[in-house]
Amino acid sequence: MRLELYQAETARIAADQSALLKQAKAILGQGRALTPLEQSGVLHALQILIENAIGKAKQWLKASDQPVPVSGYDAFKALANNDLIAQDDLPAWNAIVGLRNRLVHDYMNIDIDQITTLLAANKDQFVVAFLLQPLRD
After folding, report:
1. Taking the CA of residue 109 as centre, how many other CA atoms within 13 Å lie in the half-sphere pointing to its CB?
2. pLDDT over threshold 70, residue 8
3. Is the whole model's pTM more than 0.85, yes or no?
């Protein structure tokens, strides 16, 4: 897939998943708790956003003729080491990758209250902004 097409698809997925999370935020803003189905949708949307970001990080490294690591943590570290993202953002990316890992591998121990707090603070927008940002050298 050409890089421009990849970027367009990444942005489309980011917009779609962000719209779902926006609906959940509106429900929470009305003071209503999310139903179990809505909670699952939120968790899935976050997982897709984060996996999309990890994929974009790896594509960016590949397009920059850099080695592409297997680990999401290492992909963002490589972006920071190559000045493609700010070093100061690395702790936030490590937390985001850690959240993805918990969503996928430790799903029985997810605290939905922490997830809704994350949404209320618009922490998901950090990932969306990255996904909407065009790739650059």
Report:
1. 6
2. yes
3. yes
